[in-house]
Specification:
The chain is of the alpha/beta class. The protein has helices at 3-12, 19-30, 34-50, 85-94, 121-130, 144-158, 186-194, and strands at residues 52-53, 60-61, 78-82, 100-103, 135-138, 167-170. The strands form 2 sheets. It has a 4-stranded parallel β-sheet. Strand 1 (52-53) and strand 2 form a beta hairpin. The protein is globular and about 65 Å long.
Length: 199
């Protein structure tokens, strides 16, 4: 295998990148300035040394604890529970949520051998026990695994017996803005009815 094919093979293993896209990327890199390509290679080489999970919330960071956990302007009484570090970036991009995060590192998937002990659920419970948390927002995806994980976390939190007003909420799911009822699938419509609110 020559260098072109090897790099194409490497790129094609990235999520969402097929063989054709990988070939385009390699061809594009070959046309670039050599300094850019060297810097690009250095960045890839250094990424695992420089970026690690935050020891508190689990999101990717270069400084530990991460800038979100150490920001005094964030609301320290809210924790938003997400599946993966990239979910933190997605929520942060909207700029509406001002609380803290907790990354589970996946979802409960018994058929794949992933149970609660493989996720950072015990660390979440410790944070709730030790902090002044008043709300836990579960932001797992609305899938069977996401629902299972959310139910497990809700039950585990209820068993803490904190004796105060700790609230567990779930992100609303349902009909997107501008959506047409005619094209909404049954599960989404069902979730929309269950998640309806007063106005």
């Amino acid at each position: 295998m020559n260098a072109f094919d090897e790099l194409t093979n490497n790129f094609s293993k990235l999520p969402g990148i097929g063989k054709k896209s990988a070939i385009r990327m390699v061809n594009w890199l070959l046309k670039q300035d050599s300094e850019y390509v060297k810097k690009f290679a250095r960045n890839i080489n250094d990424i695992q040394d420089k970026i690690k999970p935050c020891s508190i919330c689990g999101t990717w960071t270069e400084s530990d604890p991460c800038p979100i956990c150490t920001n005094p302007l964030r609301s320290s009484n809210q924790i938003c529970v997400v599946e993966q570090p990239q979910d933190v970036s997605t929520i942060e991009a909207y700029g509406e949520y001002k609380g803290l995060y907790h990354v589970l590192g996946g979802l409960i998937k018994p058929l794949e051998g992933i149970g609660p002990s493989q996720l950072s659920i015990s660390q979440l419970l410790s944070r709730i026990r030790e902090g002044n948390i008043t709300e836990v927002i579960i932001a797992t995806n609305p899938t069977v695994e996401g629902d299972t994980t959310a139910l497990y976390i809700n039950k585990a939190i209820s068993e803490l017996n904190r004796g105060d007003s700790l609230k567990v909420t779930r992100l609303a799911t349902g009909i997107p803005v501008g959506g047409d009822l005619e094209y909404i699938d049954k599960r989404t419509l069902s979730l929309s009815f269950r998640g309806r609110s007063e106005f």
